[in-house]
Design brief:
Number of helices: 27
Structural class: alpha/beta
Distance between the termini: 65 Å
Length: 738
């Protein structure tokens, strides 16, 4: 059969991967190297050139969009439908198996799939049934515990509660009760789909044999993103069936260990490394020709990622030309950095570019606030990709509602939002009762609450909990009377319990919410004086309540801007950027402690994942890339001096050019850097950011940042057991460990 239409247009390495003999193959596909195209053409080649039955092909990827695109492209190449072929996500294929074999899987025929919200509500019900304090044990944290164990292939009975502290023991109880409730009601969450389908294949000899004989060709996309249970699922399905002459199935896997950035949600980079030892006779093909970026951008990416150990190894190249230098901008502070990004974006648009050709990438969601404000001032339309605008984020809206109540007790919308956030035992029936009293008396819900308690309409526990909420708001208001705006905000966040409540959420979500709340305090510090929210000076003395109201009104106005669906600058985290490409890319916040973040400095494995994340960010850029950082940035309520990220020092000098707002050359950032860890100037005792130190009282820690000079020098150290501390360097007697 003529297969020139399948092979035409492929480069030499792509053709090698597509036409490989049937067997286990690992395609190490660099960014922008056409991996999806190669996977699709491999499927078509199996059918048309090697005579594979479409019904014997199983192709797995990670998103429904990718799966649909894959199937569509295969059908176009084959010029016909490919219904017999199984193409889908891991979860989709697992679901299909369970629907077909519900009895063998121990499920009712009409079992129900729980989406993320359904699961959250069910776990909340379990927590209340067990009489567990939701404030100490947040629902999302419990969900994270359950799902992370399922992703590792562990049921509740496999988790040794005795080996855990109180944290683990309580969550183990929740997991057990949740599992029993799901079993009783025929409920299956997303993590359960994979776990139960793996158990189905593992424990049922006949079914396992059937599917091993059927699926002789298994193709896996984004192999570096597989977790423990997904990898185990593949190994069971691909293994040889005892007594069968067919032997094992052939696994054709495509991935890039340099783009493994989801370790925080269970992905195991070790899977792609172990593939060559866990499967027999694995051939390796490297796709290194990049069709996206310029040579300078690729040279920077190659040099950076070369600092990681135990890579499968590849070197991206392109014939698209050298391209311009990567531009490095050192902002005086984060506001200056944001202004620069907005200014250069505006230039791009004025030169005929479209806003949607521009992406701003950042490590932390909290960074978006000042960039959003800079775009608003220049009327640059923007969109938060895969996320929510700063003032529309859940934790921010909660904090603003507390602030609104402190300044205006009769704000019903704010009252309803936070009367039971964090949970304090005020249920929907109590809120409905307050609403009825308010309507009957023509008053606010705040006044109705007080009236209901006084009249006895609210009784027992309802009266107690609502009364405690009223007292909480009054106490906050009393404590911050005549305080500056940022102190009002800080006190609201801490005293209400919001910070503790959101910080206890599991994984990156909880950390992001905490960072966003801290950024809200920073916004309030800057309000009216540092261009964040310019406040008109009327010449009269204004009360703090007036400043509070102006801030809240401005925040509400910001959250309502730019809702059109037209072309817009894209803002996103580095994680969200994977798989995307843009002609112009800004990588913002390239500072030690921010990117790489402080949590990664202690563990080499986490630092390497941060470097892979930087690699992903760099390889999103097609024509122009900017690295930006702020010499000072207010984070965690402190204005700190920053040092350029070690990742900048790992990029060859010939790839970079430093610029200022007006185009002038800045002070060389490399003068501040040294082999990936920045000196804290001579008067900082020779310490470096990221250095390990020991304190006589607090123990071992990592240096995060420093400020001041001479005898006034202070350093911030994150101690393993004592947390983060600011110390006067002259008196701290820190021992340098390395």
């Amino acid at each position: 059969m003529d297969v020139t239409h399948i092979l035409d247009g492929l480069n030499e390495r792509q053709r090698e991967a597509v036409t490989a003999p049937v067997g286990n193959l690992l395609v190490v596909a660099g960014a922008g190297s056409g991996k999806t195209r190669v996977l699709v053409h491999r499927i078509a080649y199996l059918v048309e050139a090697l005579g594979a039955s479409p019904g014997g092909i199983l192709a797995v990827t990670f998103t429904n969009k990718a799966a649909a695109e894959m199937r569509g492209r295969v059908e176009r190449l084959l010029e016909g439908p490919a219904r017999a072929m199984w193409v889908g996500t891991f979860h989709g294929i697992a679901h299909r198996l369970l629907r077909m074999h519900w009895q063998e899987a121990g499920l009712p025929q009409n079992f129900q799939i729980l989406d993320a919200d359904d699961q959250l509500r069910l776990v909340k019900r379990v927590i209340r049934t067990l009489d567990v304090d939701e404030q100490k044990w947040p629902v999302r944290q419990a969900v994270w515990f359950i799902n992370s164990h399922k992703d590792e292939g562990r049921r509740a009975k496999d988790v040794e509660a005795a080996d855990h502290d109180v944290f683990g023991t309580t969550h183990h109880r929740i997991y057990e009760a949740y599992e029993a409730l799901c079993e009783q009601g025929g409920l299956v969450d997303f993590a359960e789909l994979l776990l139960r389908s793996h158990e189905l294949l593992l424990n049922n000899i006949d079914l396992r044999g059937h599917y091993r004989r059927r699926f002789r060709h298994l193709l896996v996309d984004e192999f570096q993103d597989t977790n423990t249970i997904q990898y185990a699922w593949l190994r069971v399905l691909a293994a040889a069936e005892p007594g069968s002459a067919l032997g094992p199935g052939a696994v054709w896997a495509v991935g890039d260990d340099d783009q493994s950035i989801y370790g925080w949600r269970g992905a195991k980079i070790q899977n792609i490394h172990d593939f060559q030892t866990d499967f027999a006779d694995v051939e390796v093909v490297r796709l290194e020709q990049n069709y996206r970026s310029t040579s300078r951008i690729l040279n920077a990416a190659n040099a950076l990622i070369g600092n990681n150990a135990e890579r499968l190894g590849k070197n991206l190249w392109t014939d698209a030309g050298l391209g311009g230098p990567i531009l490095v901008y050192s902002g005086y502070n984060d506001l200056d950095e944001a202004r620069f990004i907005a200014d250069r974006t505006q230039r791009w648009i004025e030169d005929g570019g479209s806003p949607d050709e521009v992406a701003v990438l950042y490590r932390s969601n909290a960074q978006s606030r000042v960039i959003e404000e800079a775009c608003l001032r220049l009327d640059i339309p923007y969109r938060i990709y895969g996320g929510v605008r700063f003032f529309e984020r859940l934790e921010i809206k909660n904090a603003l509602a507390y602030m609104r109540l402190v300044g205006q007790r009769h704000a019903d919308v704010a009252f309803e939002r936070v009367v039971n956030t964090p949970p304090r035992g005020i249920g929907g029936k109590t809120v409905d009762a307050i609403r009825v009293i308010a309507r009957a008396n023509g008053t606010s819900m705040w006044q109705a609450s007080k009236d209901g308690i006084a009249s006895g309409a609210l009784k027992g526990r309802a009266a107690t909990t609502v009364g405690a909420f009223i007292k909480l708001i009054d106490d906050i208001a009393g404590a911050v009377e005549n305080a500056p705006l940022y102190e009002i905000t800080e006190h609201c966040i801490e005293t209400s319990g919001l910070m503790a409540f959101h910080s206890k959420e599991g994984g990156e979500r909880g950390m992001a919410r905490k960072e966003n709340l801290e950024e809200l305090v920073t916004a309030c510090r800057q309000f009216g004086r540092d261009l964040a929210f310019p406040v008109e000076n009327t010449g009269t003395e204004e009360s703090q309540a007036s400043e509070l109201e102006e801030f809240l009104d401005q925040a509400a106005l910001e959250s309502g801007d730019y809702q059109s669906g037209g072309p817009a600058l894209q803002m996103m985290t580095m994680h969200s950027a994977k798989g995307l490409e843009f002609p112009l890319v800004f990588m913002a916040g390239m500072e030690e402690g921010l990117f790489p973040n402080t949590r990664s400095m202690r563990e080499p494995g986490r630092l390497e994942e941060e470097r892979r994340l930087a690699y992903v960010g760099i390889t999103r850029a097609m024509r122009q890339l900017y690295f930006t950082y702020a010499e000072t940035r207010r984070m965690n309520g402190m204005q700190s001096s920053n040092w350029p990220s070690r990742f900048l020092d790992e990029v060859p000098a010939e790839c970079l050019e430093e610029v200022r707002m007006g185009g002038t050359v800045s002070r060389p950032f490399r003068a501040q850097a040294g082999n990936g860890a920045q000196d804290l100037r001579e008067d900082h005792g020779g310490l470096r950011i990221g250095q390990s130190v020991r304190h006589a009282k607090f123990g071992d820690g990592i240096v995060l940042q420093a400020e001041g000079a001479g005898e006034r020098t202070r350093v911030q150290v994150n101690f393993t057991n004592a947390g983060s501390k600011w110390l006067m360097l002259a008196y701290a007697n820190l021992e340098i460990l390395g």
